[in-house]
Design brief:
alpha+beta; signal peptidase activity; Umud Fragment, subunit A; protease; transmembrane; 248 residues; 8-stranded antiparallel sheet
């Protein structure tokens, strides 16, 4: 092999490595600053989000904390370019007792709010949140149970509306003490009110630093616990109607 051929081969390899490194750095920047993909692991946000939904989370929505970075290095505290979520936002956050775990819930309580559940009704600062029964869902893929489930539409004081499931009358989460949300913290609840580990229980108040981002859009959804890599299952298991739906 001539010297010129060796130089060409070496240059070609170096160029390939350079392109790969640049692509990895670009992906890291996008994941850290812009968008991060998440999959829904549980039914706590049904009917809004289902197990098997894959969504993008906007990382800049609330600014950046150490939890915005891969592996969550303890480089700084608090948030940079921080802003508070709005009531009703669906948020991915780090589980306060174990920040290695990602949770996704809806923000119902802001700093200083008084939050309580009475007979299945959400109260904010002593006032009942508007709630009306809008029907039933009889689809196990949405409810996870083989019977009709009551659906209630809640409308928060800022006008954000969403559906909640009422799986069990008089469940343990239907009546709670009054929670006073501390400064710099948020109160989170799942839309599947009787099957959600949230701020009523061991999640507690979520520090602003733990917020990862706002759930934005569902880019893929597949039922029955199938993997999106199992392309042969797409014709029967993919939930086509959920693709590219905004999370509200």
């Amino acid at each position: 092999m001539s010297v010129a051929e060796k130089q060409k081969k070496s240059g070609g390899l170096g160029e390939t490595v350079s392109v790969i490194v640049q692509a990895l750095l670009l992906a890291l920047v996008i994941r850290t600053l812009l968008f991060q993909p998440f999959s829904i692991p549980s039914g706590s946000m049904r009917p809004t989000l289902l197990e098997g939904d894959y969504l993008f989370v906007t990382k800049w929505a609330y600014g950046y904390s150490r939890y915005s970075l891969p592996l969550s290095p303890n480089l700084f505290s608090g948030r940079v370019f921080g802003s508070d979520p709005e009531r009703g936002d669906v948020v991915v956050f780090k589980f306060p007792p174990n920040p290695s775990l990602d949770y996704i819930k809806r923000v119902v309580g802001l700093p200083g709010d008084r939050i309580q559940m009475k007979d299945g009704q959400l109260y904010i600062n002593g006032t009942a949140v508007a709630r009306e029964k809008v029907g039933q869902i009889d689809n196990p893929d949405v409810t996870e149970v083989n019977r009709p489930v009551d659906v209630y539409r809640e409308t928060l004081p800022n006008g954000v509306s969403y559906d909640t499931l009422d799986l069990t009358p008089d469940s343990i989460g239907d009546n709670t003490r009054e929670f006073i949300v501390p400064e710099g913290h948020f109160f989170m609840m799942g839309d599947n009110r009787d099957n959600s580990t949230d701020s009523r229980f061991n999640v507690g108040f979520v520090p602003g630093e733990n917020l990862v981002g706002r759930a934005n859009i569902i880019f893929f959804s597949i039922a029955s616990g199938a993997s999106p890599l199992e392309i042969w299952k797409w014709p029967t298991e993919m939930r086509a109607s959920r693709l590219f739906n905004f999370v509200r």
